């Protein structure tokens, strides 16, 4: 029963956070992240990350990524495959190198230096998706690049993490895991191109809209589970399930129902729970390092994305959007941090510092995106005004 009270607190607080964010003209996701800090363990301690809330938040991020796939334009993703891949590659390599050499200069051991790089190489696509949806930018050229790059970024980070953890212990099963992951991607390709569209067309004849919605959820959760079984993040399976269904005639109908289903319950719990691991113990003592690392976390994603965007002839504001879309670390970094603590690579103090830096970057990212969207809109207004002719 205590979990029910915590759910009520989160939903009510998220409702207020959304309303206040709208009044203050800030991205809604920022308000929900901040409300998680206030009502969660960092400040008031009204809610905690128990098993039930953790499971519900996982469903929230799975549904959010399923919606990202449903809303993504497959033709745009294919069109911008090259810039997406370059944004992903540079967005992984630059943080890895910067944090490796920086922590080596600070006398960290090699394992810790590599681990810091891995933590900040991953991108939180879920936060970016939320902001893109809020400002209606998901199905644009820039949105397609960000989504494609963030998915590829996470895949690369997960593979590198698998290698790294295996190198610390037994590497006996790493070859089998890589083969399983390769076969999974082959299956995903077949599912997107053949299996899911064929199944949806068969169901269209006999199924009601409710049944189609349930089938979509079954596909989403099934692919999410399969992704986890081969050592990947569940959000990978959810995204590709959405991408496959989104290309069918039922895509818009499923999107409406999933949006209502997810945002009414699961997704607010996910956004609030991101801040639950945050602790302020020792914050003041290590504040200069935390501020410096947070700045680097932002710049090591923002600058590579901006440079790649400009290299592919996107405008300065569009390139800023691409870079800004890669800044948030969110749940992917928190997962990697948890893996590092479980493997005794880092202690409790370092764990808290990394969580603080991760949450800070997650809050900063939506403001960068909002600035680029707003500036782009203002520029368009000036171009369309009579005085500009």
| Structural classification | mainly alpha
How many helices does DSSP assign?
16
The helix content is over 70%
Radius of gyration: 21 Å
Overall geometry comes to: globular
Q: Which segments are poorly predicted (pLDDT under 50) over 5 or more consecutive residues? A: none
Helices and strands, in N-to-C order? HHHHHHHHHHHHHHHH
**Number of E-type strands:** 0
End-to-end separation: 65 Å
Mean pLDDT: 83
Largest beta sheet, briefly? none
Indicate the proportion of strand residues: under 5%
Structure description:
With 389 residues, the protein is an all-alpha fold. Helix content is 80%, strand content 0%. It has 16 helices and no strands. The longest helix has 37 residues, at 348-384. The model has no long low-confidence stretch (mean pLDDT 83).
Short description:
The protein is mostly helical and 389 residues long. It has helices spanning 2-24, 28-39, 51-71, 74-79, 81-105, 110-121, 125-134, 141-168, 174-206, 209-229, 234-246, 251-273, 287-311, 316-325, 330-342, 348-384. The protein is 80% helix and 0% strand.
